[in-house]
Amino acid sequence: MYTALPQTSAEFEQLGWAEIDPWYRELLAVQLTATNVESWLRQWSQLTALVDETNNWLHILTTRDTANESYAQRRACFLDGLFGPFQSADQQVKTHLLASGLEPAGFAIPLRKLRVDSELFREENVPLLNHGDKLVDEYFSINGAQSVLWEGRDVAISQLLPEMQSPDRTRRERAWRTYSERKLQDRETLNEVWVKLLRLRLQMAQNAGFADYRSYRWKQLYRFDYTSEDCKALHEAVRQVVVPVANQIADKRRHLLGLEVLRPWDVDVDPRSDKEPRIIEDVAAVLEQCAGLFTQVDPALGDYVATMIDENCFDLEEREHKAPGGYCDILEVRQLPFIFGELQTINDLVDLVFHETGHALQTFEARHLPYLHQRVNYIPIEFSEVASMSMEYIGSEKMVAAGLLTNDEARSIRISHLENSLLTLTRVIQGDAFQHWMYENPELAQDPEQVSQKWAELARLYQPYIDWTGCEEVLKIGWQKIPHFVVVPFYYVEYVYARIGALQVWRNYLADPAAGLRQYRSALSLGATRSCPELFEVAGTKFGGDVATLQDIVRSVIGKLAELESSL
Predict the structure, then answer these.
(1) Nearby residues of 182 by Cβ (< 8 Å), 6 or more positions away
(2) Which residues, at least 6 apart from 280, have a Cβ–Cβ distance to it below 8 Å?
């Protein structure tokens, strides 16, 4: 009934819009009925998957090598030649489906999100979205080009991160200062990118009929289940419940390190060890061990990771001209996840490999769903991060059995990870409060000095245990190092809601591994066919962040910390 589509995104990338447009015209020409809507959805889903995978693969290439002009040109060609027409044509297809009044099985939640897409779409915003993507590429390119002279060698700035964990305080301070001085060199350039992006976003919201960007973005993120006021209540709950505990953890760190105050270069070192974090020399071998680790959790999960290894879906080696950060992108045509980052020391296993593998597992668990709109971007971000964060805790339980770490290494990493779980809640809430301030005060937020001062003010509120004396200028640019603010605005508080959920998944797993894992995998398999609170419920957790819930999970973490520390 429908014209055949390319089988790969590589084939699709070679096509011009004149060759792609007929597939959209074909979809729009169909008079939808209850009989034909499922086959029509499959065709639309496959076409959208080709566009989605092409875009994601080009993003992967440009982050893997920020200096490769060919990759940059290919991505620019796609954004300039196809992205705009695709946005417009896809919107027409959405409108066509919504106008039919049909609701295919398992499509109620995606339909709700499609209605939002239709409501927000403005033709005049398409070139702005395109321009925004290019500014994001510029942000990554600036960061990816940062290198420093370290011990006689020119190295990527990311290679200093393990040095900041050194038990030698003089060495880690020198690494921190070298890193920070290089970051300060790009301060003004990144400020210029930020101001351009902010103005562009304000214009997009105005074009869509919104008085402010936050209201526009709230809808764009499909936040049906909580409001900006709920976020502010969460800010206060974290300040009330978690900040005092974070201060206690920091004070213990200060005492273990034998320091009078904690300086910025004292927050990443393991205070319980006088050894450097073990460097990972053979990334491929470690990945094979990780496949074994996930097999111990569940054989199906191990098979998923083995498939990714076979399909070259990991890029974890460190090198120059590699963009900062870590992510898991989905290649929808191949139905495979791709994990990107830099696995440098054993300390990166939990936050990078286990975390991003959690995202990958969700891709595998949900791929049985027939339509792209039941997967990928339509899954609530809050729950997607439960998928990833839960694996941080569950995977940590198997590190010794999988041969990745010794008992002492695993215990040390688990203690640090649990402490950081609470410390991170305060850091992320600081970031969320920062974003609310920026978009509530867009005029002030166009002044980089005002932005930097606000960041420093919030840092002192949520991380009062760090002494920044003499390093105030470095403190003020801390926000520039967090890609979320630049790349995906307001995508940050999800980490707090998800952390609360993931800690509950882990608690369930400890009580009954088989039942806890079954609930977790059942929720992942639902993709975007349930609301956010419903997904949390299926996973055996509660969605939200009130004082009582926070107190409950803090008690659990403190209890496990006491148990681990007693075995030292």
Answers:
(1) 146, 147, 148, 157
(2) 286, 343, 344, 345, 346, 348
Give me the pLDDT at residue 276, please. 80
* For the chain, the helix, strand and coil percentages under 3-state DSSP, each to the nearest 5: 70, 5, 25
pTM, entire model: 0.88
pLDDT digits (tens, 9 = 90+) for 217-239: 999 999 999 999 999 999 999 99
pLDDT one-digit tens code per residue, 150-187: 999 999 898 899 899 999 999 999 999 999 999 999 99
Determine the Cα–Cα distance for residues 493 and 496; give it in Å rounded to an integer.
5
| Distance, CA of 204 to CA of 219 (rounded, Å) | 13
d(CA 29, CA 135): 37
Predicted pLDDT at 83:
82
Question: Are the CB atoms for 526 and 538 separated by under 8 Å?
Answer: yes
Taken as a whole, the chain contains a residue count of: 568
- Amino acid 493 reads V
Contact assessment for residue 109 and residue 534, using Cβ atoms and an 8 Å cutoff: no
Tokens in use for 83? 């992205």
Separation CA 137–CA 139 (nearest Å): 5
Nearest alpha carbon to residue 420 among 202, 226, 242: 242
Both tokens of 146, joined, read: 């940062």
Give the chain's largest Cα–Cα span: 74
303: helix, strand or coil: helix
Q: Which helix (H) or strand (E) holds 129?
A: helix 126-144
**Mean predicted confidence (pLDDT) in 371-381:** 88
In this predicted structure, what is the pLDDT of residue 1? Answer: 76
What is the rounded CA–CA span in Å between residue 523 and residue 501? 12
Nearby residues of 189 by Cβ (< 8 Å), 6 or more positions away: 142
